[in-house]
Amino acid sequence: MSTVTSPVEPSRQSTLASNLSDEAVPEHDPNTTAGLLAQRLQAWKHAVGYLEEYVEAVEKVHKNSSKEYERVLKTISKPLREGEHFDQSLGGVAGFFENMRVNTQALINTNAETEKSIKGSVLPVLERLHKEIKHKAKELAHGAEKGAKEVEKARNTTQKHIELLGQHTAAFESSGAKHHPNDDPYVIQRGVLHRLNKQVQEENNQRNDLIAVQANFQEFEAHVIGTVQQAMEAFNSFVGGQALKVQALYADMLGSAQRIPPDFEWKGFVKRSGDKLVDPAEGPRTVEAIQFPNQNHASTKALIEGSLERKSRNKLSWGYSTGYYVVTPAKFLHEFKDDDNYRKDPTPELSIYLPDAIIGLPAGEKFNVKGKDKSGGLGGKLSGSSELSFKAHSPAEAMKWFEVIKKVAGATPGSPTVPSPAEEVKVNPVEAAAAPATQGVTGAEEKPKPVVAVPEASTSAAADAKAQEAGVAPAAAAPAAAPAAADEKAAVKA
Alpha-carbon distance 358 to 370, whole Å? Predict the structure, then answer.
């Protein structure tokens, strides 16, 4: 009998199935492969679920954005305040805001449309895919469980007969060849082979089912990925398209603002309200050109004004200070710092009511005025009546001031006046005699002035000298007693 040797087959890497083929009842759990595939389906189900949640969140974002843009629209829904200042035609600011309203309403609409599209076209695809994965997991669990139970049952049966064969083979060695027919190890062995064949059939059936499931898994996963891609394409078409619309709407707003010519509104405003605007061709206003009521009234015109030097009333000071002095028709002698009416309010520094004052004859460019400061300043309240020494720029100017002040004070020609220091005044006897009559006419209604008595003609030279020292001009002797008496009543206007 010849022995046939089979060729040596090439070695290959052993697999789980080949390792288990040498064992009659392998310890491998028949649910291992099915369980692994079930876990994979669970992973896919969760992945699709995450995608579902993301798309749902985006859908809610667009829904809320639509509502938020409604609030945005309310901020510009009312007409512009003081809208009459803007041109209502297209191309201006009013048209720009109308463009913003239209585009903002479009933002509301496009967000609402995107929310509806996602909800109606994208989410249903992912929901169906989620259900397919769940159904696939149920099918796998049901088929694997049924096949695993059959394999487990066949393995248990085989294991029992193998154990029975072991018992009877052990008994055969101890008791010899005397056995019951059913306990014959040969018969039992054939029973083991029968049951082992059934077990292998169940295992192979399960294996074939798992191979089919594994092959189907590749197709199913391709279907899952394809469905996800389809959903994302639809999602991108809606969301991405909406993003492009938003960009276009905002770009249109920008273009509407950029198309406004810089001088468009101003030209329209000048055209509408040019009669109320300032004409740049007109010259600026000047105080000199302005007319106001009583501007040229006689009481507002100075009788004489100009700069004079005045000696300070403070006995401790010396020298003269320059000021601006005015004699007004209201019979005041006012002192100002200067003649500037604009730099500050021209409030008098000193004010003397001339009818209550005593005026001295000029001595060169100097003359005196004795009176009370009524300006209301602190200096007037403390000093009371005081004699003010003035110095003009020239004797002629001093005489001019004296004449005006004497006239304002109410003195008449020939009236005795108080001479300035070291000045002797010559009085015309005729004028002295005529003074009482003249004063009775012109000064009847005047406030009583300080008076200085005029000496009679028989007055001695010594009396004349005393009168001169007292500052009173000596009067010539009158031929009759009546003129002398009149001279005694003469008043000196101060």
Answer: 5
Residue 429 structure tokens: 């006897």
Question: 415 versus 320: which is more confidently predicted?
Answer: 320
Where in the chain do CATH 2.30.29.30 domains reside? 298-409
Task: Give yes or no for a contact between 331 and 354, defined as CB atoms under 8 angstroms apart.
Answer: yes
The CATH class, in words, for 28-258 is: mainly alpha
- Distance, in Å, from the CA atom of 238 to the CA atom of 353, rounded to the nearest integer, reads 97
Please tell me the CATH code under which domain 298-409 is placed. Answer: 2.30.29.30
The two structure tokens encoding residue 350: 């000193």
User: From CA 195, how far away is CA 155, in angstroms rounded?
Assistant: 8
Q: Is the dihedral of CA 35, 38, 43, 46 positive or negative?
A: negative
Retrieve residue 458's tokens: 């028989």
Summarize pLDDT for 95-114 with one digit per residue, the tens.
Answer: 888 889 999 999 999 999 99
Distance (Å, rounded) from C-alpha 405 to C-alpha 494? 9
Residue 281: half-sphere exposure toward Cβ, Cα within 13 Å = 0
What phi, psi does 325 have (nearest 5°)? -120, 145
Residue 319 has pLDDT above 70, yes or no: yes
CA distance between the termini of the chain: 181
The model carries a pTM of 0.49
Q: List where CATH 1.20.1270.60 sits in the chain.
A: 28-258
| Residue 475 contacts residue 427 (beta carbons within 8 Å) | yes
Tell me the range of 54-63, 87-96, 288-297, 343-352 where mean pLDDT is highest: 54-63
